Amino acid sequence: MSDFDREFITDAITRMLARREHSFDEICRKLSQKGIESDAFIPILEEFREANIQCDKRFAESRARALYHKGAGPRKIKLDLQHYGVNEYVAQRAIQEIEADWFEAALKVKVKKFGAGRETDFKYAMKQKQFLQYRGFYSEHIEFAVKGE
């Protein structure tokens, strides 16, 4: 690999990480899309990881917190992090770091979309449950938000 190639790859990785945190897999995918061979960028990316410039844990915490503030539940956050190549253990730790009350979060999302009233119509209650399920909440969170149980 020439010095130009190394400089180009280093510059590309630096620009990505300067904007926001990225997972290791996400950077690999983006560099591959630019037509760069993985044999060329993996060693350089490993150097970034060893220097703690790129960190999947930091990415996971940042992404999890952002999704939580957008109203996503724990299931959706976990799946999103796995989509970015974060391993299950790191994803679970990032979700725990939020220290969220998922019951209250589900209720807040439900109230924002459907209002504070408790629904008695079965069909409308099912619509609320499906919405909360789509947002990534577990059944116990959904039941609490919809029925208050």
UniProtKB/TrEMBL annotation:
Which keywords describe this protein according to UniProt? Answer: Cytoplasm
* Family (UniProt): Belongs to the RecX family.
Please identify the protein, giving its name as recorded. Regulatory protein RecX
- What is the role of the protein in this entry? Modulates RecA activity.
Q: Which residue ranges does the record assign to the RecX third three-helical domain?
A: 100-145
Which PANTHER family does this chain map to? Answer: REGULATORY PROTEIN RECX FAMILY PROTEIN
The highest taxon in the source lineage is Bacteria
